[in-house]
Design brief:
With 404 residues, the chain is an alpha+beta fold. The radius of gyration is 28 Å and the shape is elongated. Strands 9, 12, 15, 16, 17, 18 and 19 form a 7-stranded mixed beta sheet that branches. Strands 1-8-6-3 form a 4-stranded antiparallel beta sheet, with no helix packed on it. A hairpin with a 2-residue loop joins strand 18 and strand 19. Helix 6 (223-237) crosses helix 7 (281-296) and helix 6 packs across helix 8 (370-385). It has helices at 105-108, 120-129, 147-156, 172-187, 200-217, 223-237, 281-296, 370-385, 387-390, 397-401, and strands at 3-7, 17-23, 30-31, 36-41, 46-50, 55-59, 66-68, 72-77, 190-198, 243-246, 249-252, 258-260, 262-264, 267-269, 272-273, 310-314, 333-337, 340-347, 350-364.
Length: 404
């Protein structure tokens, strides 16, 4: 027998432990090389764990276990033969031929170490539904309780109205986010200032060029590229907003590494656009799309979600009208975008209906004064309401957009 020990790889610098979020296979399954066998949570991201070799797997850690980087979490018997048909389910696991095989433990009612103990997949369902397993007779090998045993039990339970509850442990990522948010509230002098933006000029530009832009570059011309560009111009004019506190010192940056908050199935992630001040609208849109896909698929690298100097979050995509976004530490400010609503506004002394977005800037008042925070938002507003002059420099937008 040749057995491979699979250890937890390092997800990135400063990460010393991870949590087993989910096993994608069961104990005794045959796995193929590079097959995803588990998802593990760090305090920064959820990562996939691929099988290093093909063979029969033995799990050495359970869902919810916190394990150190370098710790053995499973064994793979690489000498085991692949089951016929290539399946890895219970019925087709590799079997070792033996003369005159005796009855199994379940056939003779003989108890083994597995009797009455749930498999990894079964235990997950048990914990989620608060099931008592003492009276469950396992049908798996050696009397082990299988996932199917639990599903059959749940199907047989009488329903008494819709009064079910579910208890789940927070993922390591979610616990880290919660801890960071509480820290921000407790350790910063956070304030929020607001303004409103008439989105008609941007919307008119997008309506005119977005189809040709997408056809040529295979990426949409969204609001986020305009907001990101506007922020880079405002950060240049108000550098304290692009600064951080380090003890008794303030660190200011001459570059804009802007984080774009992205909602993923595993929680909020903030991929970072490096040197956003050097990007044009196409480069911003392309990079945001690339990073967002990686984040949602759980394939983003640690270095792609760390080290930002300023963050933009868009609650408007979920219908938010107004909010006070929480600073993303150790940064000192965050811009919140919201939904666009048709509102009556005064334009040249007359009331007109315009598409208006409320914007919010939360900032650390320890290093950012009210004058700079308000001035920053005013600059963002000016850029967005005068894109032909302040985004395209007075040049023909079509020539610039279609000739990147």
């Amino acid at each position: 027998m040749s057995v491979l020990e699979m250890k937890v790889p390092s997800p990135g610098e400063s990460i010393s432990e991870v949590e087993i979020a989910e096993w994608m296979v069961e104990d005794g399954d045959y796995v193929e090389k590079d097959q995803t066998i588990a998802e593990v949570d760090s305090d920064k991201a959820t990562l996939e764990l691929p099988a290093e070799q093909s063979g029969v797997i033995s799990l050495k850690a359970e869902v919810g276990d916190v394990v150190a980087v370098g710790q053995v979490v499973c064994l793979i018997d690489t000498s085991a033969a692949k089951p016929e048909g290539g399946s890895s389910n219970e019925e087709s696991k590799p079997k070792t031929a033996a003369p005159n095989p005796g009855p199994t433990a379940s056939e003779t009612n003989e108890k083994t170490y597995a009797t009455g103990h749930p498999s990894v997949a079964a235990k997950k369902i048990i914990n989620e539904n608060n099931i008592q397993v003492e009276q469950i007779e396992g049908t798996g090998k050696g009397g082990r309780i299988t996932k199917q045993d639990i599903l059959q039990l749940l199907a047989s339970l009488p329903e008494e109205g819709n009064r079910k509850s579910e208890v789940r442990k927070l993922s390591m990522l979610r616990r880290k986010i919660a801890s960071r948010l509480v820290t921000v509230k407790n350790e910063t002098a956070m304030l929020t200032t607001f303004n409103e933006v008439d989105m008609k000029p941007i919307m008119d530009l997008r309506a005119k060029y977005k189809e040709a832009f997408k056809e040529k570059y295979k990426v949409g011309l969204g609001f986020m590229s305009f907001f990101t560009h506007a922020c880079t111009l405002a950060l240049k004019e108000f550098p304290t907003v692009n600064s951080m506190i380090d003890g008794d010192h303030m660190i200011s940056y001459n570059f804009n590494d802007i984080g774009i908050a992205v909602s993923t199935p595993k929680g909020l992630m903030v991929p970072v656009l490096r040197n956003a001040e050097e990007m044009n609208l196409l480069q911003i849109e392309s990079k945001i799309k690339e990073l967002a896909i990686k984040a949602r698929d759980g394939k983003i690298a640690i270095e792609e979600i760390t080290g930002g100097t300023f963050t933009i979050t868009n609650g408007g995509v979920f219908g938010s009208m107004l909010s006070t976004p929480i600073i993303n530490p150790p940064q000192s400010a965050i811009l919140g975008m919201h939904n666009i609503v048709q509102r009556p506004v005064a334009v040249n002394g007359k009331v007109e209906i315009r598409p208006i977005m409320y914007v919010a800037l939360s900032y650390d008042h320890r290093i950012i004064d009210g004058k700079d925070s308000v001035g920053f938002l005013v600059k963002v507003k000016e850029v967005l309401e005068n894109p032909e002059e302040l985004v395209f420099g007075g040049k023909d937008p079509e020539k610039i957009l279609m000739n990147y």
